[in-house]
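Sequence and structure are kept together here, with a separate record for every protein. An example record follows, reproduced without changes.
>
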Amino acid sequence: MALLKRDEEPVMQRGGGELNALLGRGSTFEGKLTFEGQVRIDGRFVGQVLTRDTLVVGEGGQVQADISAGTVIISGHVEGTIVATQLVQLGATARVKGNVETPMLAVDKGAQFNGALKMETARPAAQSAAAPVVSLAADLRGR
């Protein structure tokens, strides 16, 4: 099976987070992926990702999916809608095609993004609904 769970010894990611599962290079998976913790995709994934936690798409990763997550860190290729409740981070080798909705976006020089961006922080219910919403359509190509 291409999706591996490592129970015996946790794999540590850059930044100190524990990696719960890995779809390695050369692996392909299609379907619906739900998880807790952190999952890294270095292979090819097609389908849907649902989590409150962290999805990492490695430099060799190719994802064609609608993603709903807490944090999405991308260094590979992603095509689809991304909704993150905390952060979307695009590394220098990231190639993203699709709409992104997140309260915080970090983009490294060299990353490519084709799509619409909606940035909105969560507001308490008592706050006015008239607060501005930032919407941006962009093609960011660092050179």
Q: What stands out?
A: The two ends are 40 Å apart (CA to CA). The chain has one domain: 3-138.
